[in-house]
Design a protein that fits this description.
The structure holds two protein chains of two kinds. Chain A is of the alpha/beta class. Chain A is built from 13 helices and 14 strands. Helices cover 38% and strands 20% of the residues of chain A. In chain A, helix 3 packs parallel to helix 5, helix 9 packs across helix 13 and helix 10 crosses helix 11. Chain B is α/β, with parallel strands linked by helices. The radius of gyration of chain B is 19 Å and the shape is globular. The chains are: A alpha/beta, B alpha/beta. Chains A and B meet through helix 3, helix 5 and helix 6 of A and strand 2, helix 5 and helix 6 of B.
């Protein structure tokens, strides 16, 4: 770690894993290239040397089975962290995640919980085209039995590992791959905020912008631009997509009366749609204007940079949407 | 074979047979619903394998698992109550016929996605190996699972990491209605397992003594650190795949040929040859089983329906645990 506790998101995740493994012998990391290679995004670099191949386990390319093995190990006394290289590959493990991890506690009438942590990278912006760029975390948030965390900050990248491991049920952590090089302040002694707690990152009075993951920073950039135009935006980091922190969301809506959501998932059937529905149900009469959202374009992600940029949420789109909402009577 | 063991094998197999015959009756009278996959014809496998396991070992079964649950010692009462969807059921009525679970006997389902239990077995065995526990995970699946990717991934991992898993393939020659020859390029399934460098054996799944002996040897080998073992038990399902199956894909004559060498018939012959048949007092066993099943039905009938206010329970662990 650098001086003044400045560190990268990548190092924060690594520190989180390291800290958990030092504290608890039951914790181990398993996935493709997590050991000898050092992790596809270099997150686990150095961990093999520190903890040995029994606890930093390189798996063959078999997402379904190593995820299922994580479930089995979790039910049999361990605290596994399964790393899936990208959310797109997680679809090969969807049977295990959906049909087993999310259902076993229920199917067994409460007898078998699954304390499993699955980490995976998500998101576009690196010209990796239509099989490596999507954001499916909102889609996973549809599933009862799972918890879905989306750390945006360096602090959360670190502390969500421990939060997830302390949870008795399966937790999915989505790390936006463009965040790995981002820098921030890390306090390893800070008490982690609970899973179900959204955070107001920038207080404001005119408009609420809800975002998660990398789009939190796009929303904060947009808020700076809006400030120059005398629009005071409140920016909230959702942190968790399941459970959602309805209380923090509704409190902000009651304060600003105008709201928009930034969501890197596709618009149709998205987490932003769910949030809008909840605001409609719980705070409709607080609204002074129709809600808005900025999502990814409904297209498999293209390779060409100008097209990919156009497909993703961008600060300029957030600013435009915010102004549109402010212009409503 | 000693007389006690003969009694145990016979009564366990007969219990499964009679229990499921009662299930058919109850299904027809709409006391139990959902899917009902019967194990009738395959009883020797569950009974033989469970005999080789100890209480510390774990079992993962399929959606055709009434037999495994009974042979593992889960009470007929709690299984029947589960089928009735009652709180007193072994999964509190949340699982039903396809999802029998029991923590006390380390019975991990009741898994109804074909092949889906194998990765879990691999992980359970991985945990045992990491924690240096002297345990085996027994994983049951059918010939249909062999076509799934998870079968191959799991056998590869179990062998690569030398994990204490006993794979039991119950080859009844049909994946629902598709015969093995229409599913597999190689119909000798133990050869597939052997290609992953797993010690693999083909066993007469209609002969409980042969299954028990093979399973006992397998468990000893696994516990002595020789890695996983694969048992392919050749068997046959006497009944339809489920209650919705018109059985258009196989001939009555074929079914009858297999019935003639079914597990109860085979075992009776075996005992007669050894002069043990009269000594096990089959009628007494039959009477006892009738009573066990009657009691199970009464227990299930009198069971409690969970209040609808509890509907969303068991989705997440209780707050106090968290």
């Amino acid at each position: 770690m650098k001086e003044n506790n400045q560190t990268t998101y990548r190092e924060a995740v690594r520190e989180g894993i390291k800290n958990a493994m030092q504290k608890d012998d039951r914790v181990f990391l398993m996935g493709e290239d997590v050991g000898r290679y050092g992790g596809c995004f270099a997150v686990s670099k150095g961990l093999l040397e520190e903890f040995g191949k029994e606890r930093i386990i390189d798996t063959p390319l078999c997402e379904s089975t190593f995820t299922g093995a994580g479930i089995g190990a979790a039910m049999n006394g361990m605290r596994p962290i399964v790393e899936i290289m990208t959310v797109n590959f997680s679809l090969l493990a969807l049977d295990q995640i959906m049909n087993n991890a999310a259902t076993l506690l229920h199917m067994s009438g409460g007898q078998f919980n699954v304390p499993l942590v699955i980490r995976m990278s998500t998101g576009g912006g690196k010209q990796l085209a239509a099989q490596h760029s999507h954001s499916l975390e909102g889609w996973y948030a549809h599933i009862p039995g799972l918890k879905v965390l989306t750390p945006a900050t360096v602090q959360d990248a670190y502390s969500m590992i421990e939060l997830a491991l302390n949870d008795p049920d399966p937790v999915l952590i989505f790390e936006n791959s463009l965040l790995y090089n981002s820098q921030g302040t890390l306090d390893t002694n800070a008490k982690p905020l609970p899973i179900k707690k959204a955070v107001v990152k920038r207080p404001g009075k005119d408009l609420t912008i809800l975002a998660y993951g990398i789009n939190l920073f796009k929303a904060l950039d947009a808020a700076k631009i809006l400030e120059k135009e005398e629009i005071d935006a409140e920016v909230i980091d959702l942190r968790s997509l399941r459970p959602l922190d309805d209380e923090t969301i509704m409190n902000s809506v009651k304060k600003t009366h105008r709201v928009m959501i930034v969501d890197e998932g596709w618009r149709s059937g998205s987490i932003s749609a769910e949030i809008m529905a909840r605001i409609n149900e719980q705070a409709f009469f607080e609204l002074d204007a129709p809600m808005g959202r900025v999502c990814s374009a409904e297209v498999p992600f293209p390779y060409a940079k100008h097209l990919e940029d156009a497909a993703l949420p961008q600060p300029v789109k957030i600013v435009a949407m915010a102004k549109q909402i402010m212009e409503e009577a | 074979m000693d007389i006690e063991l003969a009694k145990k094998f016979y009564s366990q197999m007969l219990l499964i047979r009679r229990f499921e015959e009662k299930c058919i009756e109850l299904y027809s009278s709409e006391k139990i619903r959902g899917f009902l996959h019967l194990y009738i014809g395959e009883e020797a496998i569950a009974v033989g394998v469970m005999h080789a396991l100890s209480a510390d070992d774990a079992v993962i079964a399929t959606y055709r698992e009434h037999g495994h649950a009974l042979a593992r010692g889960i009470s007929a009462k709690s299984i029947m109550a589960e089928m009735y969807g009652k709180v007193e059921g072994c999964a509190g009525g949340r699982g039903g016929s396809m999802h029998i679970f029991d923590a006390k006997s380390r019975f991990y389902g009741g898994n109804a996605i074909v092949g889906g239990g194998l990765p879990i077995a691999v992980g359970m065995a991985l945990a045992d190996k990491m924690m240096k526990r002297d345990r085996v995970t027994a994983c049951f699946f059918g010939d249909g699972a062999v076509a799934e990717g998870e079968f191959h991934e799991s056998l590869n991992l179990a062998s690569l990491w030398q994990l204490p898993v006993l794979f039991i393939c119950e080859n009844n020659y049909y994946a629902m209605g598709t015969a093995l020859e229409f599913s597999e390029s190689e119909v000798n399934l133990s050869k597939k397992a052997a290609s992953y460098r797993i010690n693999s054996f083909q066993v007469d799944g209609m002969d409980v003594t042969q299954v028990a002996e093979s399973a006992k040897n397998a468990v000893e080998d696994i516990k002595s650190g020789k890695g996983p073992v694969f048992l392919e038990c050749l068997t046959y399902r006497f009944r339809a795949h489920s209650m919705f199956d018109a059985e258009l894909y196989r001939k009555k004559t074929e079914v009858n040929e297999w019935k003639d060498k079914g597990p109860l018939v085979t075992f009776k012959k075996n005992l007669e040859e050894r002069g043990l048949w009269s000594k096990i007092k089959a009628q007494e066993i039959e009477d006892e089983i009738t009573k066990t099943i009657d009691d199970a039905v009464t227990f299930a009938e009198n069971g409690t329906l969970e209040p609808i206010s509890d509907l969303e329970k068991f989705v997440y662990s209780p707050e106090e645990v968290q």
